[in-house]
Automatic annotation (TrEMBL):
Pfam families: RF-1. One of its GO terms (biological process) is rescue of stalled ribosome. This is Aminoacyl-tRNA hydrolase. Belongs to the prokaryotic/mitochondrial release factor family. Residues 105-121 have a biased composition (Low complexity). Keywords: Hydrolase. Residues 17-140 form the Prokaryotic-type class I peptide chain release factors domain. Its EC number is 3.1.1.29. SUPFAM superfamilies: Release factor (SSF75620). One of its GO terms (molecular function) is peptidyl-tRNA hydrolase activity.
Length: 146
């Protein structure tokens, strides 16, 4: 297996090179249609990369990737599964392409926030909600002795 090369882009101006020794591939039987081949070949590929220990990322890139991919990580390990193709070789290539795409997007910095103003409708709804809440609190008061 060769190193995984990621093209230059935002957040990685020189691209990324993930050494092949840091990528862990596991193979298993794929589910779904495929006839007899599905029962005999281990064509499903799981490609894993530990983002906390990889040498391919700088510290700022590592922090950004861990933050952006937090929902997809198991501890600090990113795992991609590919089982769309019938051959293991094509699934390996698909998993590598998918991993490269995820990392390319995750390493890119977020764009600047465009300041926006609340709409007239949202301002009106907010004020009405405040009035309703104030009326509820007003009704909790002890009645006047008059």
């Amino acid at each position: 297996m060769d190193d995984l090369l990621i093209a230059p882009g935002p957040g990685a101006p020189h691209g990324l090179r993930i050494p092949a020794v840091e990528l862990v591939e596991q193979f298993s039987r794929s589910s779904g249609p495929g006839g007899q081949g599905v029962n005999t070949t281990d064509s499903r590929v799981q490609l894993s990369l530990d983002l906390a220990t990889t040498t391919a990322l700088e510290e700022t890139q590592r922090a950004r990737v861990l933050r952006n991919l937090a929902s997809q990580l198991d501890d600090t390990v990113l795992t991609i599964a590919a089982s769309e193709e019938r051959s293991q070789r094509r699934n390996r290539a698909a998993a590598r392409v998918r991993l490269a795409g995820l990392l390319r997007e995750a390493v890119a910095p977020a764009g600047p926030r465009r300041p926006t103003r609340p709409t007239r409708g949202s301002q009106r709804r907010r004020l009405e909600a405040k009035s309703r809440r104030g009326a509820i609190k007003e009704n909790r008061r002890r009645p006047d002795s008059d």
